[in-house]
Design brief:
Layout (H helix, E strand, L loop, with lengths): L6 H4 L6 H69 L1
Length: 86
């Protein structure tokens, strides 16, 4: 038989059944890993979006609280100035 075996006899060009079987198993493992990586990337993206939303909500809350505190400080400062003038 020629060094390059026919596809019909071995299932792949120039590879033994054992080599073809190992290559097939490797391909299956790579495909499984790709599927797991896709799932991981989706989970990471979901976590990122969740954290961004939480950060945005907290930013709005903190800005509001800072606004309330700023108003209180201004009122207190005006009251102190008014009392000092009496």
């Amino acid at each position: 038989m020629s060094p390059r075996r026919s596809l019909r006899k071995t299932g792949t060009w120039g590879k033994s059944h054992k080599e073809a079987s190992a290559a097939s198993r490797l391909l299956i493992l790579v495909e499984q890993m790709q599927g797991r990586l896709d799932t991981l990337f989706e989970a990471i993206d979901l976590t990122r979006r969740t954290l961004e939303d939480k950060i945005d909500r907290l930013e709005v809350k903190v800005r509001s609280e800072i606004g309330v505190l700023t108003s209180a400080v201004r009122r207190n400062s005006e009251d102190i100035r008014h009392l000092q003038q009496q």
